[in-house]
Amino acid sequence: MAHAWGVSPLFAQENVTNIHHTLSAELILAAHELVARDQIELEIEPQVASVTFTLAHSLRVESVAMTHSVPHGKGNSDEIVPFKSVHPSENTAQRIVVSLPKERSRRVTLVMSYRGQINDPPREPRHLRFVTPSETAGYIGLEGVYLSGESQWYPDITGSFSTYRVTAQIPEGWTVVTSGRKEGETTGTGKTSSTWIVQNQSEAFTLVANKFVTTSREWKSPTGQQVELQTHFLPDNAGLADEYLDATAKYLDTYVRILGNYPFDKFAVVENFFASGLGLPSFTLLGGGSIKRHYIQPYALGHEIVHSWIGNSVFNRDDHGNWVEGMTTYLANYYWHEVVQDVPQALEQRRMMLNGYNLYVRPETDYAVSQFLRKHDEKDNAIGYHKAAFVFHLLRQEIGDQPFWSGLKTFVSSYRNRPADWGSIEEVFSQESGQDLRWFFEQWVEQSGAPRLSFQDAHARRVTAEGGREAWRLVVQIEQSGKPFRMKIPIRIAMKGSTEVKSIALSLSQTSVAEFVVPDQPLRVELDPNLMTFRRLTRRQLPPMLNGYVTDQQKTVALAFSDPASPLQQIVSRIADHERTESLRTTVISLKENSLPQDGSILVLAGVDQRQAVQTMAQESCGDRIALGDEGFKIDDQTYDGPKMAVLFSCHRANVPGSIITVLYGVTPGAVEKVARFLFYYGWHSYVIFQDGAVTKREVWKGSPEMKEVRIDATS
After folding, report:
1. Is 150 exposed, middle or buried (0-12, 13-18, 19+ CB in 10 A)?
2. Which residue from 101, 149, 618, 636 has the highest number of Cβ atoms inside 10 Å of its Cβ?
3. pLDDT at 469
């Protein structure tokens, strides 16, 4: 994606259009070097005296020429044109300002020759969770090649959309994969040259290369569209090709029905030489570790495939809020489970969206969905991915399934190969539903926050219904603390012999009252039992989990093991290493020598030698759910025995509202060795059972729901 480097995207788009690159590039791996020539055709308004390109600061422009056609069909002549290179700062892209002759036609062809190193080796970011991608601006080397739009490896005009014809030369035995369609390939004198075409306007051209083993097959859509499915894996993972091709076909079968024809000629799953999960036009780039771990789930491969339409065919408008990740998350991570009718997993995904927002977004650091640009941390993830995804779920409930799904198809076809923003989405769905949705987008997209709802009162009295039947009139009062939201909220009414779910429309006032006539005596009411609405929940209402500990402002690690060489010690070191860049510090204590602090959340790292003390402490908060033994443990009445068994469990801390106690317990040091490295990846469940480091079971214990007993009026 093109990024602004001090040149106005508006200026670029208004005055320079219809850009086409004919680029030839040789990649010299051992020297990390690129040698390139780019013939750039563009239309420039007559009054414009110069045009500005961005290029990586490490590349040196050797010449810029302007091509003129010679009369009488005698070919072209090149005129050298002056240019200057402006380096705003170290590691920032340079600006190449090319002066244009006064006498010229509107259609201009420039030829830029340049060379230099692209050598930014991938590095792991400092993060407690291991799944973040490595960071690099671009790399050419013997380990692999990665050149994206952000690498600035070819001259680009800020904010522009271009078409491309790229010929790449690389040593024989290497394979190039790009965001284009392969037109041809030749090999000779120890080099392989391949040519790639992008006919539709695109934000950027990405090129990767390695010593791949390639597998491919044809896929045909229900409408007869043919797409080539490919895997390009390094030899170690080549045996997984069919698994990935099968999964790709399964996702395409579903999403072409929802989003229309697939926008490209191919879809390739490509192995990267560093950790990544990137959705690019016509391919996805995944780290080898992810591929080995069968990264074919809806939130993984499914998510990258949906990006083919959302983000890589319909673009996000530069310098506007990023709607792409929210829509993709809704369609892939969430809606897939509805498609396959996995009701429990769909509920689990809604819970994850709510949990992410409520744990990681404190009211004082919240911001509007429309302000999300890209993910830097868990807070951005909670707003730009989770809350934004939930906005589409709320929109679907507001306008109904038929207008929602037809609106989505209309949106994708109307904005194909064009940038869109939240305003475009509002316009299409308003038109499709025949409703004025200004209030909806203002409330959920342009304003920060979420409603805080609670039952103020619930009372009922016996009445006589039609035909003389006995019935009950139930009056429910819901209070909104903080800024009120306009919304519908489901409530579950538990009666003596049955239950019913009803909906209450909340107005823009602090209190809303609803009346229902029900057939049996109501006992209690529960707010939004299936998590169909987006709202603020207290930490006590959330399930207990490790991420509850992670997000507490006050944290303590309690060491309950004696062996200084225990793998549990690695966790302490990783936390300390991570916190060098954090302002909040975790207190570390020995359980044997200290009592637990009265406030905050606790992470207990426990071995068998201090089992009894840990059991006593855990029982206070977890009750009888957990029993730790010398050879295993019992959780939710199920016993797990053996030297390779470990458990991570969390409970709401007794008498400390909003805080968590989490325990990692291994029967032997070996049982926790693999878990210790990935501990913070298992943050979303109340307990996770491990056997030799592999997960065998994970469960969520419900938090305390918003519930009220129904008061029976004295007259009944």
Report:
1. middle
2. 618
3. 86
